[in-house]
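User: Can you help me understand a structure? I only have the sequence.
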Amino acid sequence: MGKYVVRKKENGASFNLVAGNGEVIGVSEFYTSENNCLNGIESVRRNAPEANVEDQTIAGYETLKHPKFEIFKDKRGEFRFRLRAKNGEIILASEGYTAKASCKNGIDSVVRNSDSPVVYREE
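Assistant: Let's start by predicting it. Here is the structure, written out as C-alpha cells:
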C-alpha cells in the first residue's frame, strides 16, 4: 500500500503520493497551510477514482469534463500527467516518463493508491 507523505515547513506544506515500492507517483503544489495540504489529499482521494483520462498527445483529442487526468508532453518531450479536480484545479502532477505506457501506469497507480494513509516527514 502507498502513502501520502506530508512535508511541513514554517510557511506551509506539500505532499507526495508514494507507491508501496517507495516510488513517488505524484506531487502536490505547495500549500500555505497544513490544513489546505490535507484538503488537497482529500481531493485526490475523492477525484482520482472517478477521473477519466484525457490524452492530449493525440491530435484532435476529446476534451473531457473534470475530474480528469491529463496526459501531455513536456518541453523535453517526456510524457506527464496531472490530475484536475472537479473545479479544474491541478491537485497532483507526475514526473516525466519516456514512454506513454509508463505514464498510464502512473495514473493507474494513483487510482490504486488514492485511499492511502497520511504520514509526516519532518523537514
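Now, to help you interpret it: The mean pLDDT is 96. The two ends are 24 Å apart (CA to CA). Let me know which part you'd like to focus on.
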